[in-house]
Design brief:
- The structure is a single chain.
- The chain has 236 residues and is mainly α.
- The chain folds into two domains: 72 residues, Homeodomain-like (Arc Repressor Mutant, subunit A); 99 residues, no CATH class.
- The protein contains eleven helices and no strands.
- Helix 1 crosses helix 2.
- The chain starts with 27 loop residues before the first helix and ends with a helix.
Length: 236
């Protein structure tokens, strides 16, 4: 396979372009931007080294001189969207700052709906990923905990956001793929669910539904999920 490494390596430890010759025609930022444009417009499944090379106007094999593997391309993309985080001076209120970071992460993922599919701790060593993690730890300075639990807090909060947004995106994509509205489908499913609960086979679900008045406030669910993560690490 072209560009296959003989041993594990980190793309950030490599020079911008391997080999000798003239000055590189493209930077990693150029390549990442092209890949993000493709994924944003056509989805992650449309992304390939050939497609990105076409976007840049170069040959596919030439691109391998800059990016040895598709996984490296993914890492460049995650780093590129990481630059969209607003790294500002912490307010001193660690909960408020981490809630703001989580909401901002959610917004970024909705701008780039392919991101939840690529989220991995493997990609956590890129420049912008490290910059964001250090910012989160800066926000958590007032929290009287060692760095280990603080790292766990950041990871868990990101996991909740990623899972929640992945479900939102999947639901939206399903809605676009069928000839009826989300409201129409929900009505049919709720009616069926009600008929099943009415059989008496699910008494606890019946009790739970009796407590629920009106539609579920999904924004409220998201905010409560974030709050519960923060509560778990709050020594007060």
């Amino acid at each position: 396979m072209a560009g296959r490494a003989a041993e594990p390596e980190v793309i950030w430890a490599r020079p911008e372009r391997t080999g000798r010759g003239p000055k590189p025609a493209y930077t990693r930022a150029d390549i990442a931007a092209a890949a993000v444009r493709v994924a944003d417009a056509e989805g992650l499944d449309a992304l390939s080294m050939r497609r990105v090379a076409g976007e840049l106007g170069c040959g596919t094999m030439s691109l391998y001189n800059y990016v040895p593997r598709k996984e490296d391309l993914h890492e460049l993309m995650i780093d590129a969207i990481g630059a969209e985080h607003d790294i500002r001076e912490p307010s001193g209120d660690w909960r408020a700052d981490m809630l703001r970071n989580a909401r901002e992460t959610r917004a970024i993922m909705h701008r780039h709906t392919w991101v939840p599919r690529l989220m991995s701790g493997v990609y956590g060593v890129s420049p912008n990923s490290l910059r964001y993690l250090d910012h989160c730890l800066d926000c958590l300075e007032p929290l009287d905990l060692p760095y280990g639990p603080k790292m766990e807090l950041v990871a868990l909060l990101n996991a909740v956001v990623t899972t929640y947004v992945a479900n939102e995106i999947a639901t939206a994509e399903r809605t676009r793929s069928v000839p009826w509205s989300a409201e129409e489908e929900n009505a049919v499913r709720i009616a069926y669910l009600g008929s099943q609960v009415a059989t008496g086979a699910y008494p606890r679900l019946a009790a739970a539904f009796m407590e629920q008045s009106g539609p579920v406030d999904m924004e409220g669910v998201f905010e409560r999920a974030l709050g519960r993560v923060l509560d778990a690490f709050d020594p007060d």
